[in-house]
Amino acid sequence: MESAFSHTILSFLLLLLLPLFSSATKFPSNDHIDLYSIASFPKLQAEKLISDLNLFPDDDINLAAHVVHDPSSETSKIVEKRFEFPSIRASSGPSVQDLGHHAGYYRLPHSKAARMFYLFFESRNNSNDPVVIWLTGGPGCSSELAVFYENGPFKIANNLSLVWNDYGWDKASNILFVDQPIGTGFSYTSDESDIRHDEEGVSNDLYDFLQAFFTQHPQYVKNEFYITGESYAGHYIPAIASRVHKGNKAKEGIHINFKGFAIGNGLTNPEIQYKAYPDYALNMGLIKKSDYENVSKLVPDCERSIKTCATSGGGGDACLISYSLCTNIFNRIMDIAGNGVNYYDIRMKCEGALCYDFSNMETFLDQKSVRDALGVGDINFVSCSSTVYDAMVNDWMRNLEVGIPALLEDGIKVLVYAGEYDLICNWLGNSRWVQAMQWSGQKKFNDSPTVPFQVDGAEAGQLKTYGPLSFLKVHNAGHMVPMDQPKAALEMLRSWMQGKLAMAERISPK
């Protein structure tokens, strides 16, 4: 009876919602409206976001059903190899032979058949530098996007050769890039029950991986450890931060020398951040005042639906409806803005459906020489998985800010940064949830002055900081700050880890 009633309500809500949905996401044409339309909305939205990056993975999730494993060899151990990418252009810096570049798979113990893929690049500066893990969002996009287009050691040239990135974060850290959740990138399973649907599953997998990584690399256990990432990693990062801190307190396994985490243009507190969309769009001239008033009428239903999703226990129809209602705010703004506005960087125009062209990554990683170097064999590469995105829909509207105050109180450093021209996870919404967060230093943080963040004597951003908490709005950057402002991003990371982020004067990263 309950199920039939909920489906009746959902059908009625669909009738109300369907006219509101943006033309940016097309529903299957039907002679009648049914539950399929609203249930398929997240995946259709994901497919559009993926194609806007000029990414066209062969599959919508990495289910390697053809891989047969010997049960007698099923151990939760890392299988890792040192590798060299082919076609690396020579430089005046260290040769790749002098550096430790590693690729590996980890058999997740709390799974039926999942293997998590990662890349590990030893520091170009000093082996005692902190260990940093980077998590790309989506949900469902590979961290190889960051490796080749943001803060990894290399950039991909048009001829598919690799050039050294002068501002790769391996110049200040020993850095891990992980393909997660399972089904993303080169991470795969042969059992669909391994697909994750919430932060508990995601954070436990990453914690298990980190325990195995430090067991495999005991020389790094003493190094400081930081968690970083962007976009939907605004959900992942607080969850894994809490999981690592909990493990340390409970003396589980290896003690991880966890010092802090940084969220870049993240989605962390949806209720506050979705409400900020109309304000940001108006302030940046994407919509007019009359448009603002109309779009703002969508906000109360979004806010109420987020609360309903939370009280439902994070599952069922309520969270799907919440995702649809709140996404409509963003889609309505995009419909009004029109003219190919790039929602990752509103200074730019999308050419047709193409907002960025990251296709060289897929082409590069499909080369046999590259696959042989990485040891991935014929495992598929899923650059961004619409199925993983869809699987996390009940997690989408969860507020992950709630676990951060306890970490601040225990002295864990937190940096939230955002490029000023990103719409989709804009700086205004991020600034608002940071200031609304209740912790012992809230008033002093909010009362603290906003000061220039300087690089080479020039203002590169606006910084607000108190105690372990910092918020940085980065100038002349969109959603992907390390891609748009690589020098400033590297200096941000280095100075933050060294506790010097609030210093007024900067010098250029070397």
Would you write up a description of this structure?
Residues 1-24 form the signal peptide. Probable carboxypeptidase. Its EC number is 3.4.16.-. By secondary structure, the protein is an alpha/beta fold. The chain contains 17 helices and 13 strands. The protein has helices at 2-17, 35-51, 144-149, 199-216, 233-249, 270-283, 289-296, 299-311, 317-337, 359-365, 368-374, 386-391, 404-409, 427-436, 442-447, 481-484, 486-497; strands spanning 78-82, 101-107, 115-121, 131-135, 154-156, 162-164, 174-178, 225-231, 258-266, 413-419, 451-455, 458-466, 469-474. The strands form 2 sheets. An 11-stranded mixed sheet has the order 1-2-3-7-4-8-9-10-13-12-11. It has a two-stranded antiparallel sheet with strand order 5-6. Strand 5 (154-156) and strand 6 form a beta hairpin. Helix 6 (270-283) runs antiparallel to helix 8 (299-311) and helix 6 (270-283) crosses helix 14 (427-436). The longest helix is centred in the middle third of the chain and has 21 residues, at 317-337. It is globular, with a radius of gyration of 22 Å. The model is unreliable at 1-36 and 504-510 (pLDDT under 50).
